[in-house]
Amino acid sequence: MIGDKADAADSPDVFIGRDIAGMWRIESLEAFDCDEITDPGDFPEFGDFVKVTELNRDRDPADDPAYLSRYVDLDRQLAEIVDEPGDTFTVSRVMEKRDGGYTMDVEPGLPE
User: Fold this and answer.
1) What's the first-to-final CA gap in the chain, in angstroms?
2) Nearest-CA neighbor of 93 among 111, 112, 79, 81?
3) Which of 14, 16, 29, 100 has the fewest CB atoms within 10 Å, counting from its CB?
4) CA dist 46 to 12, 35, 55, 76, 112, Å?
5) pTM
6) CA–CA distance, 38 with 59 (Å, rounded to integer)
7) Are the CB atoms for 89 and 106 separated by under 8 Å?
Protein backbone atom coordinates (compact mmCIF):
# COMPACT_ATOMS: atom_id res chain seq x y z
CA MET A 1 0.00 0.00 0.00
CA ILE A 2 1.22 3.48 -0.80
CA GLY A 3 0.49 4.63 2.76
CA ASP A 4 3.16 2.17 3.93
CA LYS A 5 5.79 4.11 1.97
CA ALA A 6 4.68 7.29 3.71
CA ASP A 7 4.99 5.58 7.12
CA ALA A 8 8.50 4.45 6.29
CA ALA A 9 9.47 8.03 5.48
CA ASP A 10 8.02 9.44 8.74
CA SER A 11 5.47 11.27 6.63
CA PRO A 12 1.69 11.39 6.86
CA ASP A 13 -0.39 8.68 5.17
CA VAL A 14 -0.80 9.52 1.49
CA PHE A 15 -3.32 7.72 -0.71
CA ILE A 16 -3.15 7.69 -4.49
CA GLY A 17 -4.77 5.67 -7.26
CA ARG A 18 -6.98 2.80 -6.20
CA ASP A 19 -6.02 3.28 -2.54
CA ILE A 20 -8.37 6.29 -2.46
CA ALA A 21 -11.40 3.97 -2.18
CA GLY A 22 -12.83 4.24 1.34
CA MET A 23 -14.72 6.47 3.76
CA TRP A 24 -13.31 9.90 4.53
CA ARG A 25 -13.93 13.09 6.50
CA ILE A 26 -12.63 16.26 4.89
CA GLU A 27 -10.33 18.24 7.21
CA SER A 28 -9.57 21.23 4.99
CA LEU A 29 -10.90 22.72 1.76
CA GLU A 30 -7.38 23.96 1.01
CA ALA A 31 -5.10 22.23 -1.50
CA PHE A 32 -1.74 21.07 -0.18
CA ASP A 33 1.33 20.77 -2.38
CA CYS A 34 3.52 17.72 -1.76
CA ASP A 35 6.24 20.01 -0.37
CA GLU A 36 3.84 21.10 2.38
CA ILE A 37 3.21 17.57 3.64
CA THR A 38 6.60 15.87 3.21
CA ASP A 39 10.28 16.71 3.19
CA PRO A 40 12.04 17.11 -0.18
CA GLY A 41 12.89 13.70 -1.63
CA ASP A 42 10.28 11.87 0.48
CA PHE A 43 7.16 10.28 -0.99
CA PRO A 44 5.22 11.85 -2.63
CA GLU A 45 7.58 13.93 -4.73
CA PHE A 46 4.91 15.73 -6.78
CA GLY A 47 1.21 16.52 -6.83
CA ASP A 48 -1.49 18.31 -4.87
CA PHE A 49 -3.46 16.74 -2.05
CA VAL A 50 -6.58 17.20 0.05
CA LYS A 51 -6.37 16.71 3.83
CA VAL A 52 -8.76 14.07 5.19
CA THR A 53 -9.26 11.61 8.03
CA GLU A 54 -9.84 7.98 7.13
CA LEU A 55 -12.91 6.38 8.72
CA ASN A 56 -13.05 2.65 9.41
CA ARG A 57 -16.07 0.36 8.89
CA ASP A 58 -17.42 1.38 12.30
CA ARG A 59 -17.04 5.01 11.20
CA ASP A 60 -14.34 5.61 13.80
CA PRO A 61 -11.66 8.08 12.66
CA ALA A 62 -8.00 7.23 12.28
CA ASP A 63 -5.67 8.84 14.81
CA ASP A 64 -3.87 11.06 12.30
CA PRO A 65 -4.96 12.98 9.22
CA ALA A 66 -4.07 11.64 5.78
CA TYR A 67 -3.86 13.12 2.30
CA LEU A 68 -5.63 12.07 -0.91
CA SER A 69 -4.19 12.87 -4.32
CA ARG A 70 -6.29 15.57 -6.00
CA TYR A 71 -7.17 13.84 -9.24
CA VAL A 72 -9.35 15.90 -11.58
CA ASP A 73 -12.30 13.51 -11.16
CA LEU A 74 -12.03 13.57 -7.35
CA ASP A 75 -11.76 17.37 -7.26
CA ARG A 76 -14.77 17.80 -9.54
CA GLN A 77 -16.96 15.51 -7.47
CA LEU A 78 -15.84 16.90 -4.11
CA ALA A 79 -16.62 20.43 -5.31
CA GLU A 80 -20.22 19.30 -5.80
CA ILE A 81 -20.71 17.50 -2.47
CA VAL A 82 -18.38 19.01 0.15
CA ASP A 83 -19.30 22.34 1.71
CA GLU A 84 -17.09 22.56 4.80
CA PRO A 85 -14.48 20.74 6.87
CA GLY A 86 -16.09 17.85 8.75
CA ASP A 87 -18.22 16.74 5.79
CA THR A 88 -17.90 13.04 4.99
CA PHE A 89 -17.76 11.23 1.67
CA THR A 90 -17.26 7.73 0.33
CA VAL A 91 -15.16 6.71 -2.65
CA SER A 92 -16.67 3.38 -3.67
CA ARG A 93 -14.96 2.62 -6.96
CA VAL A 94 -11.71 3.77 -8.54
CA MET A 95 -10.80 2.79 -12.09
CA GLU A 96 -7.63 3.64 -13.98
CA LYS A 97 -8.15 5.23 -17.38
CA ARG A 98 -6.02 4.45 -20.42
CA ASP A 99 -4.37 7.87 -20.20
CA GLY A 100 -3.08 7.08 -16.69
CA GLY A 101 -5.68 9.15 -14.84
CA TYR A 102 -8.48 7.79 -12.69
CA THR A 103 -12.24 7.91 -12.65
CA MET A 104 -14.09 7.28 -9.40
CA ASP A 105 -17.50 7.11 -7.79
CA VAL A 106 -17.73 9.62 -4.95
CA GLU A 107 -20.87 9.91 -2.82
CA PRO A 108 -21.67 12.38 -0.04
CA GLY A 109 -21.86 11.00 3.47
CA LEU A 110 -21.26 7.45 4.61
CA PRO A 111 -22.99 4.23 3.52
CA GLU A 112 -26.02 3.14 5.53
Assistant:
1) 27
2) 111
3) 100
4) 15, 8, 25, 20, 36
5) 0.85
6) 27
7) yes
